[in-house]
């Protein structure tokens, strides 16, 4: 047993940690030990130098502990409480409480390490455990997306010309993954796949270098979380919260916001939950408005999978026998997921047309999740154009304020701009607007023709009395981005222009008197959009 293991085992003795008389439970990761005692959790960092992190000295561990506290108090201040020194005294190991030293025997004490003190929470609330128990509600990802987008919006912004976010800085950790895996595996098949993914990533970097620099200039590189996966998400008091941000590497933490998001999307793909990944991505895009980030998403999804592959390789290098084989298998699985991001995209332009209350948003959600479609909502983008949050009430009436003819022209132009960005990034897009005017629909048909992608009109409809009841209920609730009331619905009924013969040939009619059966509609949808019938792709929009 080396000196570091001795310290960890000393800390596990009852009575050493506060509130530990009932015993101490240990959780070990590849870079730390977490000791659970009573109401608290205590994290001890392993004295490792793995290249991408360096905890090899006491001073480095102190800085890392202080960074961990600061970073995680941004999202979970009630859990991350303090950095606490650990002393070796004549009487043994002593853990000082906040503001204390080693106690009466300070003269004989030696400072040996630091712990991060955290308040424990119910592990059943971890997203990873909720998923394993079959209790991870999809709506949690809507709330999580708002939490993450708002966190990103408040995070410190990297400046051009600094250490972070430029094209070279972006690719350095990507290349490091390949180098560090290659140092630790010998299997020819793994090495061959590694070389294939590396060649693709290198080519992608070359093609996207100017985009990375542009996103830095636009303020999209921020001090993010850096390790956003299901094991670092928890439900507290009914809300989804982030914790355990990366403290050990500023280079990994200061990253593009879409790279932060990519880790969770990748983690859900790896667990066979691509639909939930698509739901989270859509909700985050809607809140953040960062649809341009989709262009670099496959690069970052592959990178995030390679991070996990590297962890598998590192753990394998620390183990023997069956445990080593299992870690190498994990490395191979994540390497395959990284390779899956290389598949050719199949973009398509879909528009959701219909009166208010027809279910264009609520009833298209299953389509988004089953086919990886990215949705752009007129109700949200109209508000964004006027500097309003989606849930804000503008007080505009029919043909007034946000809803004048001029405002609608601006809104549809913005929708077309965003649709183009999504399509050029290789994703299928659903533009969610009323599209009651033929000219509006024709503009998007022309965009699809210009880009050479399928164009589909999803015509949502239900009996008028049902539409009126839905609009009444939605207006009364006041929680949706739509501000349509009965006066708006009546105006739409008077002014809408019917689909012509050419449009009808591209239209899938969707009766929303009850929830549409998208499986039953699959054949008709595939006739208009052939890729809709292809096999599942682990990528959103794939």
TrEMBL record:
Domain Aminoglycoside phosphotransferase, by residue range, is 138-296
Which Pfam family is one of this chain's hits? AAA_33
What sections of the sequence does the record tag as coiled-coil? none
Question: What protein name applies here?
Answer: Aminoglycoside phosphotransferase domain-containing protein
Record InterPro entries: Aminoglycoside_PTrfase, Cell-binding_unc_protein, Kinase-like_dom_sf, P-loop_NTPase
């Amino acid at each position: 047993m080396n000196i570091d293991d001795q310290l960890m085992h000393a800390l596990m003795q009852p009575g050493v940690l506060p509130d530990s008389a009932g015993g101490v439970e240990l959780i070990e990761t590849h870079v730390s030990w977490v000791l659970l005692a009573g109401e608290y959790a205590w994290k001890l960092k392993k004295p490792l130098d793995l290249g991408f992190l360096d905890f090899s000295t006491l001073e480095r561990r102190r800085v890392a502990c202080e960074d961990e506290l600061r970073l995680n108090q941004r999202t979970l201040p009630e859990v991350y409480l303090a950095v606490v020194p650990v002393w070796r005294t004549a009487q043994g190991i002593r853990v000082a409480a906040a503001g204390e030293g080693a106690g009466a025997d300070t003269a004989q004490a030696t400072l040996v390490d630091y712990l991060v003190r955290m308040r424990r929470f119910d592990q059943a609330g971890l997203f990873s455990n909720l998923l394993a128990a079959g209790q991870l509600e999809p709506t949690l990802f809507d709330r999580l997306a708002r939490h993450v987008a708002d966190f990103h919006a408040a995070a410190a912004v990297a400046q051009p010309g600094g250490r972070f976010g430029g094209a070279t800085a972006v690719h350095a950790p990507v290349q490091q993954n390949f180098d560090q895996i290659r140092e630790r595996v010998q299997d020819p098949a793994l090495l061959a796949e590694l070389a294939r993914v590396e060649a693709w990533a290198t080519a992608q970097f070359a093609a996207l270098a100017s985009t990375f620099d542009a996103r830095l200039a636009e303020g999209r590189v921020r001090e993010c979380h850096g390790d956003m996966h299901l094991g670092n998400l928890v439900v507290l008091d009914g809300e989804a919260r982030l914790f355990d941000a990366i403290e050990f590497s500023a280079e990994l933490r200061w990253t593009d916001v879409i790279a932060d998001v990519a880790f969770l999307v990748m983690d859900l793909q790896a667990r066979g939950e691509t639909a939930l990944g698509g739901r989270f991505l859509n909700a985050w895009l809607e809140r953040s408005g960062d649809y341009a980030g989709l262009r670099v998403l496959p690069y970052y999804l592959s990178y995030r999978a390679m991070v996990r592959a590297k962890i598998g390789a590192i753990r394998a290098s620390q183990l023997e026998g069956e445990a080593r084989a299992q870690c190498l298998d994990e490395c191979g699985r994540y390497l395959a997921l990284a390779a899956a991001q290389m598949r050719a995209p199949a973009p398509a332009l879909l528009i959701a047309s219909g009166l208010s209350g027809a279910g264009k948003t609520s009833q298209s959600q299953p389509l988004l999740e089953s086919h990886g479609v990215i949705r752009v909502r007129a109700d949200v983008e109209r508000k964004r154009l006027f500097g309003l949050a989606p849930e804000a009430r503008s007080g505009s009436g029919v043909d007034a304020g946000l809803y004048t003819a001029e405002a609608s022209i601006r809104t549809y132009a913005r929708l077309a701009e965003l649709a183009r960005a999504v399509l050029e990034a290789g994703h299928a897009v659903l533009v969610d607007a009323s599209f009651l005017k033929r000219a509006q629909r024709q503009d998007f048909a022309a965009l699809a023709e210009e880009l050479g992608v399928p164009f589909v009109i999803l015509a949502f409809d239900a009996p008028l009395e049902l539409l009126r009841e839905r609009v009444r209920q939605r207006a009364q609730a006041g929680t949706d981005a739509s501000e349509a009331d009965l006066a708006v619905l009546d105006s739409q009924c008077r002014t809408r222009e019917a689909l012509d013969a050419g449009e009808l040939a591209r239209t899938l009619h969707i009766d929303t008197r009850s929830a549409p059966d998208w499986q039953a509609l699959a054949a008709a949808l595939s006739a208009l959009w052939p890729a809709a019938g292809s096999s599942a792709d682990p990528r959103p929009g794939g």
